[in-house]
């Protein structure tokens, strides 16, 4: 496989600066012990208030830094919002967009997520666009329709530049598996990932589609990571709860060497 594995930690609204510092310190120590071993790309996405201090710790190391959300707008009168440039200024290279919590709690729809993606590219960030179905949608056999709608929405706003398109990261996160301890089976994950890959092939061509990384997220833990990551279209993980303990996050990273 030509795609490099990526394990991303979404810390959500957790971690005052001191806690965030010790968490990233633990991850750095663990990665130092793995020096010389083949390790996948590692990304941490702290809350906005801890990005600067975590950024100081990870600067010059292999750990990448990302935001959990950003505004679609350029700088201006948008109280409480944050631009992509504000994230890049702090050293972020990635931003998570359209997480199911943003979609369900803050009314973000696929069109808005797509516009945010365009803004992220404009501001020099690599977007990680999350998609996923609810339990009711899965139980009524609408999983692929929902994923189809969410993925289709991104195409009109993708940059024309092939290299930028190839940087895109998608994250399949079944809503029923997020923070619930229920994980999609490796086969369920692969089915949806293969469906997304086929959409990418049809719309963007083989070359680009084969480079876009598709992460799985939803109750990934050290003991289930490697079997999920072994599936051909699963290129890594977006990790919530288990990203808050250095040891667990490192255990997941070990599930996806290289
Ligand atoms: C998430 O919120 O993106 C997530 C995958 O959470 P968890 O790993 O806790 O299920």
Structure write-up:
The chain has helices at 17-33, 48-58, 84-89, 100-105, 110-122, 135-139, 143-152, 162-167, 186-204, 206-209, 222-229, 246-254; strands at 6-10, 41-45, 63-67, 94-97, 126-131, 169-172, 213-216, 236-239. It is an alpha/beta fold and 258 residues long. The chain has an eight-stranded parallel beta sheet with strand order 7-6-5-4-3-2-1-8. The longest helix has 19 residues, at 186-204. Bound molecules: phosphoenolpyruvate (PEP). Phosphoenolpyruvate (PEP) is lined by residues 10, 173, 178-179, 217-220, 238-242. Phosphoenolpyruvate is lined by residues 10, 173, 178-179, 217-220, 238-242.
How is the main sheet built? Answer: 8 strands, parallel
Instruction: Give a list of the ligands.
Output: phosphoenolpyruvate
CATH level 3 topology: TIM Barrel
Classify the helix fraction into a percent range.
40-55%
